[in-house]
Amino acid sequence: MQDPVAHSDSQIGRVEVKETTCYMCACRCGIRVHLRDGEVRYIDGNPNHPLNKGVICAKGSSGIMKQYSPGRITQPLRRKAGAERGTSEFEVISWEEAFGMLTERLAKLRAEDPKKFALFTGRDQMQALTGMFAKQFGTPNYAAHGGFCSVNMAAGLIYTIGGSFWEFGGPDLERAKLFVMIGTAEDHHSNPLKIDIAAFKRRGGRFISVNPIRTGYSAIADEWIPIKPGTDGALLLAITNEIIKLGLYDRDFLVQYTNSAELVIDDPERDNHGLFYRAEMHIEEGCFDPQNKLWWDRELNIAISTHTPGVEPRLMGSYTLDDGTPVKPAFQLLKERVEQYTPEWAAPITGIPAETIRRLAHEMGVTARDQKIELPIPWTDCWDNEHSSVTGNPVAFHAMRGMAAHSNGFQTIRALGVLMTVLGTIDRPGGFRHKAPYPRPIPPCPKPPHGPEAVQPNTPLDGMPLGWPAKPEDLFVNGDGEAVRIDKAFSWEYPLSVHGLMHNVITNAWRGDPYPIDTLLLFMANMAWNSSMNTSEVRKMLVDKQPNGEYKIPFLVVCDTFASETVAFADLVLPDTSYLERHDALSMLDRPISEYDGPVDAVRIPILPPKGECKPFQEVLVELGSRLKLPAFTNADGSRKYRDYPDLIVNYETSPGSGIGFLAGWRGKSGDKVLKGEPNPRQWEMYAQNGCVFHHELPRSYQYMRNWNKGYLHWARAHGMVRYAEPITLHLYSEVLQKFRLAAQGKWPGRQPPERLRQRVETYFDPLPFFYDPLETQVTDPRRYPLNALTQRPMAMYHSWDSQNAWLRQIHSHNYLFINPSVGLTNGFGDGDWIWVESPHGRVRCMCRFSEAVEPGTVWTWNAIGKAAGAWGLGANADEARKGFLLNHVISEELPPCDAGEHLSNSDPITGQAAWFDVRVRVYKAAEGEEHITSPQFASMPRLPGQDKPRGKWQAYMAGIFGKKS
Amino acid sequence: MTQFALVIDLNVCVGCHACVTSCKEWNTSGWAGPLADQNPYDGSPTGTFFNRVQTFEVGKFPQTETVHFPKSCLHCEEPPCVPVCPTGASYKRPDNGVVLVDYDKCIGCKYCSWACPYGARELDELQQVMKKCTLCIDRITDAKLSDRDRKPSCVLACPASARLFGDVHDPHSAVSIAIRERGGYQLMPEWGTQPSNHYLPRRKTVLHIDPDELTRIDNPLRKEDLTDYTGEETLDDVAW
Asked: Is A477 exposed, middle or buried (0-12, 13-18, 19+ CB in 10 A)?
């Protein structure tokens, strides 16, 4: 062999290095793609990128194998005439035919009833475009995957503190002293969190993990506190109880920046019970949170306007106003609420000893109080008080799906938001910090449409397809108070379903409840497999027919890069490109990648030409929008407005002359404006020259306390990020929720829920966080189904995205059910045995593995490793299908019929968040003689026309010669 | 003499496998490549990796530790794989201490893998030659790379910065300081192989709270020191 010292990669073949943004998961790191003779040789992290600072994860480095996977589809396909749906019998068609078919069908639907067209997308990060397309089309039936992912986390915190974890905020580990992570959160904000946790630990920070399972980040926690699934709320409320009891809360913070001291009407006989008492005074027009509420003055012992200079209000007690109205400060109500939630009460629920709960409370409270940070950063608050420094209480939290994917998740996450607030940690150093465009008003201003009249033929939707209801009038219901959307989002069943309920779309459309639809367009959403609950039944619904022989869901269009399980069910398949083959905008209008210090957005630019006939979904939408002559895509004279997606990204403005578009960087004719400015024809070039990322660092005085930071809020308003430069007072007490509860009690003058839902809304719309057993637990016999079943997210495999990836699948080619050895012992089976996991809804057969790193009431597996035979370009004997399994088969998308409804979603009753982690199971040994393969199995999916030939037994990738050889 | 090595910080390794695949992608198209995969898209996929993460549990529930343990060739100072090689294919570089295999000389006899007590060698089943970590010899000696990039791929990739690279013979290097000050240790030193790679152990941060700290004089509850008199009887009404 040549002496390696004499070997230089730079001299082998034609070398090019191009920068773009990764998409091996939703993290969106900056990458450098090194090419050798036009083939991908190496992908590494971009050292100058603010998000990943040069590092890259297991997925990112394996992008090569995604690019060259034989699982790719490369041609538009149409189900053959006469072929049964689901059998993958396709013929290749041209894009012109595909567009022709789609345009004809969609134009007819738009002219007759736009809601017959439904567009649902997966983890696409292009909702700015997909949402705009749906609105322009005029259909309300649009959402992305948020409803079945983590909407409880988004809504629970945004309705409490005006921001949330991941894209919109996170733990400030650079300055935190104590970090508490609750539940599985490994897949969201993956590299930045790894970077930060490692640095935090090196600095000597204390890291506590609360999780039923010790995997991932929990492995390096200083302390692991195992907890029973779905009981986080009980733990958080008991901690809050102890903190209030000992006076470990940040009184000054609560008074100045939250509604803790504001007086709530406390008389259950009155119709306005539970609302803030509002004094008659001048209110600024258009204000979202009028400052007309009252405090109780400690000195004078009278009610007085909030934030009256020099006044110190009471946080506790009960008072009577001059007009005889009995009132209490919101904090008093919280104190009364949590009095029942003692550590002794929480101990048997959570499985955590009472003394541990107390110690957690003490660690949080004492760290927040005694390790205060003072940064010499002057700032001015919204009440014109000048501050010479920014204070931090260095206790930080992080949580994602582990807490969110329960039907009690919203109130649990409210409890977390309240605890973070009580500790005084919001947008302060060492605590929780916002990321632009957050913080936003509580709740943010956009609203869904308000009634069926918002949907009209050949007309854009009147309202946003998704929004933030603040009162019953903001719901999207008809005259009977029933749903207008196919997924029943924003109805009284799930009033605050701010991300929709994608997990119920197929079932509802199949049943024709609330109405049948015609065309369902799915993008990047594997609804015939891991993205659906009750997968086996959903697959049957997709092929179920009317008595007349027509499919119940008449036309299914699937856009995907790979031959996923869902592609098999399509009537029309649109081949998407890989992330290295397209333009993309990771937009401030959707979910950008902002940092704590200011707004950041990013783009992708094509590194490679598209494979075969692949076309980016963005281009498909621009083409369809133009052909359908949707207003935003059409000039006044009826001609096409945008040549293609890059042209749209540069020139689109949210309204003519608004200066707000998809990308925030290098706006203005010469590229010298940020966030707001005229379109810049050279914007793409400028992104390309700057590593495909735009980072606007705010002055330090705008980097903290942004809910109440006058300078920041005015800057944000001037740059089009918020409508109001008003303080965003934290909702320790949620008057928004109380308004829905009053409606359920018949005390609200406006809209009220249908009779069947009154009790449900009254129960769950509690203005203060409370704990209840997950809905499924409430109706399941715990003796028959004694175990909780969960999934955790492997760091080397984002969701189901990479089974087609030759390298990543070697790390996770199949999964086991991990159980505490005591469970195996009790049930008579051993480590490695084949077992059945059975819930009230179904059962799967799989292999078990004993683990001491799981609490005995929980069994778990890696999420979505199991695959249907033949899908994703894998052979019929692939481990994913033979040894891998999907827990989804035992999880129902609906609750058993009850008084509140025949077909309620198995979701949070407030947000519609899919309650994946509520399922209860039992486990038992598979019988002697049963086959040693997982169950259920499905007929193998054949290779599709246009897909590469199977690769055979060996693959030896060497950039520059790989493609030429095969 | 320079001895390049990795120092792996188990205190911060979260087992994400970034080092595993960044190694694979660099080396499969590099001097030591390709790194073949068997059954890449079918049952029992397996392939050549120079670096793997093993995860194991220590202790009984609930005192369980989950340990992520990245492992690759340790570039021993006394590598047992070298003297057993009948063809001289296995060798240790005199200039930087990296242990390498010359595939042209390797006959795939596997003596070296039997000699290695760490299981760090992998026979490439396609080429039938022995392969293993080269410390990215074609990066760390490539003068055309920037200083920042002239490091093993795994080190640059690691999101937790759990992998340090440097000269363990230089007492002033970051790796030597880490070994010295943070209890860096070798694997199975009793074999006398003197592995150059070291591991840094887990460390626990605990917080002690004195009971006095829970009852401070500035307790905000003192500002809520209120009671209500609503006309009920007190000693003022009945005693003298």
From this structure: buried
